[in-house]
Amino acid sequence: MESTIDGNSDGKIISEIIANVKYKCELRKQLNDEVKKIIDVEMQKAVLEIGQEYKKATRQSIDDYKSAVHLVVEEEKVEIWRKAETLKKTTLQFGL
Q1: Cα separation of 12 and 57, whole Å?
Q2: What angle do CA 66, 57, 73 make, to 5 degrees?
Q3: How large is the greatest C-alpha to C-alpha distance in the chain, in angstroms?
Q4: Which ranges of the chain would DSSP assign to H, the alpha helix?
Q5: Measured in whole angstroms, how far is the alpha carbon of residue 13 from the centre of its chain?
Q6: Contact, 13 vs 3, CB < 8 A?
Q7: What string of pLDDT tens digits covers the 96 residues of the chain?
Q8: DSSP 8
Q9: With b meaning 16 or more CB within 10 Å and e meaning fewer, what string describes 36-71?
Q10: Are 5 and 13 in contact (CB under 8 A)?
Q11: Residue 13 burial (CB count, 10 A)
């Protein structure tokens, strides 16, 4: 595109160029603002998702720990009763 600058239209062309530059700058600013908003929303979603996953993992770890403790307790109960039965048999042997 070719443009010529005449003495009469000089001010008009310059004002059009300035208006065009201002429009482009404003448009760029609006686009940047929208991109920032979108990124902020996505970051908030990601933080929430990570937080939920962390809670799930923590709950799972606690449940696993509870299960392990319960298993050990049950094994200890069985061992106590086994020893009690052995003690009972030994006591009966001494009584005969």
Answers
A1: 67
A2: 10
A3: 134
A4: 10-95
A5: 53
A6: yes
A7: 455 555 557 788 889 999 999 999 999 999 999 999 999 999 999 999 999 999 999 999 999 999 999 999 999 999 999 999 999 989 888 876
A8: T
A9: eeeeeeeeeeeeeeeeeeeeeeeeeeeeeeeeeeee
A10: yes
A11: 13
